Amino acid sequence: MNTFGKLFRLTTFGESHGHAIGGVIDGCPAGIVLNFDAIRHALAQRRPGQSSYSSPRNESDEPEWLSGIDGDHRTTGAPIAFIIRNRDVRSEDYDVLNSTFRPGHADLCYFLKYGVKPQPGGGRASARETAVRVVAGAIARQMLPKSIQVLSYTSQIGHITSTILPTETEAILRSPVRCPDIKASEAMCTEIEKVKKEGDSIGGIVSCSVKGLPAGLGEPVYDKLSARLAEAMMSIPAAKGFEIGDGFDICRQKGSQTNGYIEKGYINHAPFMGGVLGGISTGEDLRFRVAFKPTSTISMPQASVNLNGNPVTLEAIGRHDPCVVPRAVSVVEAMTWLVMADLMMMAKATPPIG
């Protein structure tokens, strides 16, 4: 499935080392004057080559618009199609891997499912595809009220955690690892440098809060806000866990502790629940976290097999992130905007009960 969303839909295409990656956005209303600088700014937060904590692959990530936007940068209501050309491709770096399955990657699963041998850079399974999601998320953001604010940030790398909740985007962007906690950010940078020198990698957690979200967003039973967010976040490469509110920690509590209360004016106070009850937003801040595994490509020797099933020792080469978390922050934010836009449109189309 290459399409996400129901009313506001994104279809992506392309591979890591193909000519280009791209997308088609369907369902975007006509008449929205797009801020292309805001789209470029969002892409700049995700693109590789930003620092020693990300892949050295250097892509400009400049979208080429093919349809759906007129000469005044205004959406026409037609599908918005765009491509992002792959310019810094070094497929030769992966020649040795064309017949060898990389542990931790999707290579073997794609081979068993499709009969396709390992593709340079991971092919369709590569996180390169997420640049398209960031473009779509930046467009979705421009459809929604400015009162809604999404703050995605790094809250954990390895064993280093931060409990600081950011109040503005600038505090996040000042950190090379996208952590608003200065001390934790410095420790995270040191940890990433350490595992990088060892030829290893490390994982972490991206936290996200959405402020200004109105109550009533989300559709029972299968289009719950929480369910759609889980689907969106778990579709991101390397994502291995999702929790909303206090998630698994709630199992240690009692109902009397977690239920919260409701006061006059129909205002919910249930902070443990992360802003969602019954799959519908309560009007409180929405809170969730996404866990990302360590980058699968490492420089240390690993046991594997080749296409003939013969044992080999793999020492991976090529360019990769020692930690995917800092760049995943912008992807989590983009997917959040996509979910918000789609559910907002569904809310407007939902008839009243009875």
Give structural notes:
The chain has helices spanning 36-46, 107-114, 130-143, 169-173, 182-197, 225-234, 255-258, 325-349; strands at 3-4, 9-14, 20-26, 64-67, 80-85, 149-157, 160-161, 204-211, 239-244, 261-263, 267-269, 276-277, 280-281, 286-292, 302-305, 311-314. With 354 residues, it is α+β, with helices and mostly antiparallel strands. The strands form 5 sheets. Strands 1-2-3-5-4 form a 5-stranded antiparallel beta sheet, covered by helices on one side. A 5-stranded antiparallel beta sheet has the order 7-6-8-14-9. Strands 10-11 form a two-stranded antiparallel sheet. Helix 3 crosses helix 8 (325-349). The longest helix is centred in the last third of the chain and has 25 residues, at 325-349. The two termini are 35 Å apart.
